[in-house]
Design a protein that fits this description.
With 264 residues, the chain is an alpha/beta fold. It has one domain: Purple Acid Phosphatase, chain A, domain 2 (4-Layer Sandwich), CATH 3.60.21.10. The protein has six helices and 14 strands. It is globular, with a radius of gyration of 17 Å. The structure holds fe (ii) ion (FE2) (2 copies). One fe (ii) ion binds at residues 43, 70-72, 155, 180.
Length: 264
């Protein structure tokens, strides 16, 4: 088993510009940064809302080992029929049990077993989810012993809820990373008991935008309260996330660094 693992964890992939950047550049980024594993949140991969099977396959083919999802999971009609066939796609674990999809994705790389789960936060979120703490605890108890590296994602609006989640799982998992706000936070650190933490990885998509959408329609909607169509923005495309270094003997993190790459 390799003694340490370098994980690139990417924030929400927003629309075609981010998909194309990943398709054209992820393989070379993996080589440049010597990355062993890539995880990305794909909840906005198709036109900024949801993901289709075709786009999940494209991201996986480009080198994303595991695709996590969030509150936009069911935005693409028909994905509920496709999700079970995609063994590398991880749905939020605190959705109702009868929802399709995997709540824990496990795979092996260089002799290391890696597990990934995602939970939804409950503060200021429109989707009705069960307790994220209990959902992640359940997975940890039932399957945590079977993996060397455990990556837990909290897809949530409130920083307080994410930070609380990080403290709760410090020393129990390799990393807790936040997603959903699309804005990268500068609070990355390894917590005292060895869990890498960041409140939000940021987004993969246009940064000349309002969280990935064209600026003017969003401004119009926010200022005037009149509904607008929010097209996915295309300028200043960046991939944002974090690189996490995990010691595989302990399953704990040695280091976490923010990651941001701009499309040239
Ligand atoms: Fe998102
Ligand atoms: Fe979200």
């Amino acid at each position: 088993m390799q003694s340490s693992l370098k994980v690139l964890y990417l924030g929400d992939v927003v629309g075609r510009p981010a998909r194309e950047f990943i398709a054209s550049s992820l393989a070379s980024m993996r080589r440049t940064h010597d990355i062993d594993v890539v995880v990305a949140n794909g909840e906005n991969a198709t036109s900024g809302a949801g993901i289709t099977r075709e786009h999940a396959e494209l991201l996986h083919g480009a080198g994303v080992d595991v695709i996590t999802l969030g509150d936009h999971i069911w935005d693409r009609h028909g994905f509920e029929r496709d999700i079970d066939a995609l063994e590398y796609v991880c749905r939020p674990a605190n959705l109702p049990n009868e929802c399709p999809g995997r709540t824990f994705v496990v795979f092996e790389r260089k002799g290391v077993k890696i597990g990934v789960c995602v939970v939804l936060g409950r503060l200021f979120m429109k989707i009705n989810a069960a307790c994220p703490f209990e959902a992640a605890e359940r997975i940890l108890k039932s399957s945590g012993g079977n993996v060397d590296v455990f990556l837990a994602e909290i897809h949530a609006e409130a920083t307080s809820e994410k930070i609380a989640f990080g403290w709760h799982f410090d020393g129990k998992v390799s990393a807790v990373v936040g997603t959903h706000t699309h804005v990268q936070t500068a609070d990355e650190r390894v917590l005292p008991k060895g869990t890498a933490y960041i409140s939000d990885l940021g987004m993969c998509g246009s940064h000349e935008s309002v969280i990935g959408r064209e600026i003017l329609p969003v401004l119009h909607s926010i200022r005037l309260g009149m509904p607008q169509k929010f097209a996915v923005a295309t300028e200043d495309v960046r991939l944002n996330g974090a690189i996490i270094y995990v010691a595989t003997s302990s399953g704990l993190a040695k280091k976490i660094s923010r990651f941001s790459e701009k499309m040239s």
